[in-house]
Each structure stands twice: as C-alpha cells, then as structure tokens.
C-alpha cells in the first residue's frame, strides 16, 4: 500500500502541536507497512539532518515553495491556502492508494490534475474557521484581528468546497467530529485521536516536588499569549504566597519579543525561550496549567502534559475535544479564583494529584490508540486490502 502525505509544514522536528500529530502519524503508517511519499509546502527549509531523520520512515520527499504576497489578501481563498498554490503544479509521478491531506492549508493539491479525487483523506487538525475566529478574539493587534477575521470567513467558504471533493475525514477533536457527523452523516468521518506512545508515559513523585506550575506552548501564538497573560494577571499573584511556588513558561517564540510579559509581576516566573528539550521541564514540574481563553481543535499540550507525568488544571477551552472527564481526569475552572483553588488543592493534596494523573493516563492509554483506529478506518474503506504490520 502506498500513500502520499501532503503537509503545510515539514513534520520534523515535532516541536509544536501540528507537527507532533503529523509526525506521529507518519511513524504509525510506517509501522503498518506503508510506502510513504511526502510533499511539503512550507516556509521553513528543513536541514539535511532533519531530512535524514524523516527518511527513516518516508521513502520519498518533495519540497515546494510557499509564496506569500500581500495581494493574496484580496483572494477568495485564505492566505494560508493561497500561499501554497504551488501544490497545483507538483509533479505527482506515481499512483497512490490514498492521498492524506494534513489540514485545509494544502487544499491546492486537489487542483493538481495528477491527483485522483476519490482516494483523498483529510486530517482535520482544527475547524479553521473557528480557529481563526478564536485568534481574532485573542489578539490585541487590530491589523492582526482584521486578518484573522478575514481568514475565518474565507475558511468557511473553503470548507464547503472541500466537502464537494472529499468525503473521508479524520478528526483530531472528538467534539468537532461529532458536530461534523451530525451535519454530514454520509461522509466517511471518524475521531482519530492524536498519536500517543503508550510506552512513554511518565510517573511523578508529588511528595518530593517543588511547586512548579508549568505551561508549555508556542509563545508566538496569540491564543497562548492570551492564556499566559490571563494567568499572570489573575492567578499568579494569588499563588505567590505558596512556598516553593514557581511558574515555568516554555515554548518556541520564533525569535519574537517576549517583552509583553514585562507588564506583569514576574516574581517566581521562569521563562525558557525555544528550549532544545522539554524533558527536564516536565520532570521538575508538579502540575500543568492550560488557561486558554480561545481556541479550536484538541489542545495537544494538555495530552502531552499528562503523558509526561503532570496532572492538568485547565479552562473549559483548554480541554475541549479531548474526551477527558472533569474532576476524574482533569481539573476544570474558568474563573481566576476557582482556577487558583484547583491548583491549591492539588499542591496541598499530593495523593489527589497522583490519583488525577493515574486516571488521566489510563484514559489516554485506553482511548488514544491511534494505530488501531487508523488501521481499522483504512480497512473499512478497502476491506480487500488488509494492512500488514511491520514488527
């Protein structure tokens, strides 16, 4: 079986949510015995070392140039899509059993005359119309706000076009899957959870830990910035009275200034800008917070924190689409005072923190079997061609 995977960003290194999901799926497809060809249309040119790592799982890689122009703001397609128009002209010189689109951004590949429409599968990382609307609410920059609103409306129109051409969907968010299924019952859609490596779940010794509260996320994204600012303004001051408390912030800034944090009390705040590894940050953490106010899709940061041994206190937005159950797997709070109380409860009750972590890890082990769900889905589309797993 041969598959063409089309990406809007080079999938390795897996240093943010979209890459984590795509890279994990590529490795799963390789384990299932697929011959994988990769087409990427993104801004960043991967290094030789990064390409070398990808070739451990992929048989062929084609890169095409992403071209962003201001005039594209006037186009009917979203700029994120229009800038990848080169995909229409990529030389697809082989036949594939399936073509997997990693998100709406790579829609132009469907205009490529060498692509067979009937075998296209779309991985839905976010409902992009909702996602860009959420970004518009998060940013304080009026130019960015206008741009996000425009992209949101354009994605609404694009989604209707995609529906005319694609009937196979893999949703990362259980909530977005259920909403889509109600509206489009004839589509071959499933909830495909993000790939989670079961052997890498980490434990935590809460009795001996400093009270390090961790947030990890892309620091250049306005919705993550909004989350950090909300926490620093409303929750952080309440926790400064706690002995050994620190707020640890880590993520890729893409070399953008983090001076916006200077408006807040940064006592006991430690920032790791674009760290090479997150392992020690997770290891030294007591719990993870996801105070997101706006967003769409599954917040992979929540799943990754649990996998790395941290129980989670989150807003309703921060756990949406995960399937986790409040108070059983995760603590949920939307007001600053309640958010503080949930954190304080776990800081002062190590046994409760341990209970929450173990329950959430067990839920993910049981429900996030990416390989089996993906294999079952492909088998259901083509029951005569069963995939042979590579041991």
Automatic annotation (TrEMBL):
Keywords on record: Transferase
MF terms in GO: transferase activity
UniProt-recorded name of the protein: Glycosyl transferase
Species name: Paenibacillus apis
Lineage of the organism: Bacteria, Bacillati, Bacillota, Bacilli, Bacillales
């Amino acid at each position: 079986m041969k598959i063409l995977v089309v990406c809007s960003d080079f999938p390795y290194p897996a240093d943010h949510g979209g890459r984590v999901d795509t890279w994990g799926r590529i490795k799963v497809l390789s384990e299932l015995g697929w011959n994988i060809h990769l087409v990427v249309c993104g801004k960043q040119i991967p290094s030789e070392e990064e390409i070398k790592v990808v070739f451990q799982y992929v048989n062929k890689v084609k890169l095409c140039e992403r071209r962003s122009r201001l005039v594209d703001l006037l186009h009917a397609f979203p700029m994120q899509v229009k800038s990848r128009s080169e995909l229409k002209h990529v030389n697809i010189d082989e036949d594939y059993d399936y073509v997997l689109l990693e998100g709406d951004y790579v829609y132009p590949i469907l205009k490529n005359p060498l692509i067979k429409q009937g075998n296209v599968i779309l991985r839905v990382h976010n409902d992009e119309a909702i996602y860009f609307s959420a970004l518009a609410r998060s940013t304080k920059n009026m130019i960015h706000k206008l741009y996000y609103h425009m992209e949101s409306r354009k994605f609404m129109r694009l989604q209707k076009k995609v529906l005319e051409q694609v009937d196979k969907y893999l949703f990362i968010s259980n909530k977005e899957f259920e909403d889509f299924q109600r509206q489009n019952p004839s589509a071959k859609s499933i909830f495909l959870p993000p790939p989670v490596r079961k052997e890498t779940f980490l434990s935590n010794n809460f009795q001996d830990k400093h009270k390090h509260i961790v947030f990890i996320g892309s620091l250049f994204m306005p919705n993550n910035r909004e989350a950090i600012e909300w926490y620093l303004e409303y929750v952080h001051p309440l926790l400064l009275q706690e002995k050994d408390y620190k707020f640890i912030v880590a993520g890729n800034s893409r070399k953008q200034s983090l001076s916006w944090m200077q408006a807040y009390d940064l006592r006991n705040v430690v920032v790791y800008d674009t760290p090479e590894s997150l392992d020690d940050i997770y290891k030294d953490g007591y719990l993870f917070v996801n105070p997101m106010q706006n967003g769409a899709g599954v917040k992979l940061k929540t799943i990754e924190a649990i996998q790395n041994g941290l129980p989670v206190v989150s807003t309703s937005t921060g756990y949406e689409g995960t399937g986790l159950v409040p108070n059983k797997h995760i603590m949920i709070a939307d007001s600053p005072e309640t958010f503080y109380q949930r954190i304080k409860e776990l800081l002062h009750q190590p046994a409760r923190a341990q209970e929450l972590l173990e329950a959430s890890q067990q839920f993910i082990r049981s429900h996030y079997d990416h390989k089996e769900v993906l294999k079952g889905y492909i088998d259901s589309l083509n029951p005569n061609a069963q995939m042979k797993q590579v041991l």
